[in-house]
Amino acid sequence: MQRNRPPSAQTIRVLRALAADPARWRYGYDLATEVRLKSGSLYPILVRLADRGLLDTSWEPGPASRPPRHLYRLTPAGREFAAALTAARADRTVPHPHGRWSEA
Amino acid sequence: MPTRLLRWAACLLSRQRHDWGQAMLGELGRLDGRIRQLRFMLGCLIAVLLLPPWGRAAAGVWAMIAVGSVGLYASVAIRYGLGAGDWVAAAILVVLLAGYLLAASALLRRPGVAIPGLLGGLFVALAWLAMKGFTFYGVIGTIPTMREKLVLVIGVPLAVGAAGTLRSRDPVIGRRVARLAAISAGLGLYFYATLAVAVLGAGGPPADTGWTVRNIISDRLGTNLVDLLLTTLVTATVGWAGAAAAARLRPSSPAPALPGPVIPAASPDPRHEA
After folding, report:
1. I need a labelling partner for A57 at 20 to 30 A (CA). Which of A23, B46, B74, B126 fits?
2. Cα separation of B267 and B265, whole Å?
């Protein structure tokens, strides 16, 4: 069953951190440290954002002995949504995104 | 060790989520300090087990059954004023159920295992209950006959394991189906048996002479715990054998290899983009 519900407080924190510098690619661990979320909370949020087309991902090749790193930044739709969240917070209402916050 | 554990956990992800497992491994490889790595790995492990589409639903169902069972046990123990030994057994039960939950959640995320395993577990549980007449009395008061033992201990698990292999054409999946069927049947039957004790109390089948109400309740709860262990172990073991035997009847096809991470070729360093 699909559910429409506003994003959680943790999701909003992640969105705001990414929206603060939308052109910059971020590492997962750095993002978790900045928004003070554990990896167990951050990655499901990132997965949901990516599933809904709000998050762009890329890979950074590492040295031969290390695996590549995943990078994240908001898509244009993600930036719009983050901006809408900020505006809605000013109006004290939270908008429902066109995407759905239900399970994939 | 954190890398090895996370690599195992990443294999639990579905094909669509494979990149995220690689992402977690990539971050882990950059962390310094054992404690930091362990914390990160544990968080990722939880994320893997709870990622949709199976994670939350599966974890929720199993957690409800386990918590319900522990709650029933505790309510019976309090109602009848059971002794310290029974509370020690309760602690063992909690650890056991936590292990079962973890194992079931991990198995549920394996491709091709969830539905056959759950259906197999339902089949095993229904077979047991059918042999007992679907009554509380039958579950806690009767000793299985030889025919029942042959059917429930050998026949049904063999059938479940074999069906898992024949359906998937992969004995590895068949064995996982057998294990998941064993865990889900064990959890369901334990809950039912504990409910039977809660409802019947010391009533139902007559006990040995000289036994108090406490003795009877304690004995029944203990028997349920032993049955949980035995049912799960036997079903998983015999089901495993059934899965392996079925593989000999039908050649298996190897499971498709998971794709590696998508790494853009010759892409510029994204951190230097305007």
Report:
1. B46
2. 5
